[in-house]
Amino acid sequence: MNxxxxxxxxxxxxxxxxDGNLEEMTIQLEHHLSSLDAGLRENSLEVLWQWGMTGQxxxxxxxxxxDRMAANLKVGLGESGTDTVFLRAFSVLVLAxxxxxxxxxxxxxxxxRTPFLSQVKLLEWYxxxxxxxxxxxxxxxxxxxxxxxxxxxxxxxxxxxxxRSRHLDTAQLERML
Length: 177
Description:
The protein has 8 helices and 2 strands. By secondary structure, the chain is an all-alpha fold. The chain has a two-stranded antiparallel ribbon. Helix 5 (about 85-105) runs parallel beside helix 7 and helix 6 (about 120-135) runs antiparallel to helix 7. The longest helix has 23 residues, at about 85-105. The model has no long low-confidence stretch (mean pLDDT about 95).
C-alpha cells in the first residue's frame, strides 16, 4: 500500500478495500510504521488500529499481529538518535490495540466475539513491553523532518492498557509502577 491507497482507506471510513488482501495490506502497513514520513507512518497506524478495533481480524490474526509488534520492540533497542525509534514507538501502539480489543470482547462489547488472549500470551507481551521501557534510550519527542517519535509516551500508553487486563495481578501491577 502506498501513501495514496492508505489515504483512500482513511477517507473511506477505514473500510477494507474490496479488491485487497487483508493479510498483504496489513504487512505493508506494518512496514510503514518505521517510515520517516510522519503522515504515512501515522495513517498506517490509524488503519491498523481501526481494522483491529472494528473486528476485521480473526483472533488468530490479532495474536499474530501482536507477536510481530512485540518482536519489533527489540529492533534497535538501546540505540539513541536513530530511526529505529519509530518502529518501536508505533509498534507498541498496535500491540496495545490488540490488548484493548481482547478487553472489549471480555466486557461484552462484541456479541459475536469472546476474549482470545491467554494469560501466558499477555504476560509474554507485558514482559517485552516492560523490557523496552527499561531499555529505551531514545527519549526524543519531536524529531525534525520525521515527526513525533515519543516512544516513552507510547510505551506508557501501552502499559496503561496492560494494567486494565484481567491477566495481571497486584504484584505485576506494582512492578509496572
